[in-house]
Design a protein that fits this description.
By secondary structure, the protein is mostly beta strands. Helices cover 8% and strands 37% of the residues. It has one domain.
Length: 195
């Protein structure tokens, strides 16, 4: 039994010792709207609202791990990804949304790591949940933001794709915004990147 334990530990050492040194920036341009998620055009803000909660997020850096490999007894072989984002919390006042100045703001990091372990005992050291005030949504690389936080589909979350790249330009009351929610019948749509 001790031999199995040591084989397991030795197999995990290189996985946990992986550094960010092999990472490279990940660049994409066009955005996309899916039935269950939104990919904002590169560098633009997403607005998210749920009931009286409002949030603006902007991805500020995305990296790929370049560590995809063959799956083995100890890991899935999937590639790892990392993303940084800035977030700003707004609120509803009367019938208008207010985000200037933000109620709260900050910067956070997301990371999607390969699964390690044996069979049903496999686990990952990932943080794939966007947190902004009282709003929690799921993320996947490069910058996909899902309309829900867990596997349960939540149709009360709404996301608006914007063209704004500076926070001072963000206007949640802009009448041209199209607020989207989880919709299995919506076809995939490409949002062209504009310089």
């Amino acid at each position: 039994m001790k031999i199995v334990y040591w084989i397991f530990i030795v197999g995990l050492i290189p996985i946990f010792c992986k550094a960010h040194a092999q990472e490279t920036p990940m660049v994409y341009s066009n955005g996309r709207i899916f039935s269950n998620a939104v990919l904002p055009p590169h560098g633009t803000f997403l607005l998210i609202r749920k009931k009286d909660a409002l949030c603006a997020i902007q991805f500020t850096g995305i990296w790929r791990g370049n560590d995809r490999g063959n799956s083995s007894f100890f890991h899935s072989g999937d590639e790892s990804f990392r993303a940084n984002y800035s977030w700003y919390v707004g609120m509803k006042v009367s019938n208008s949304w207010v985000i200037h100045p933000p109620k709260a703001s900050g910067k956070s990091e997301l990371h999607q790591e390969r699964l390690v372990g044996l069979g049903k005992f496999a686990f990952g050291n990932s943080n794939i949940h966007i947190k902004c005030g009282g709003i929690f949504l799921k993320w996947s690389a490069p910058a996909n933001v899902y309309f829900y936080h867990t596997l349960a589909q939540d149709e009360s979350n709404e996301i608006a794709v914007t063209r704004w790249t500076k926070f001072e330009d963000v206007d949640p009351n802009d009448q041209s915004l199209q607020w989207l929610h989880y919709d299995t019948k919506r076809p995939d749509t490409v949002i062209p990147f504009e310089h």
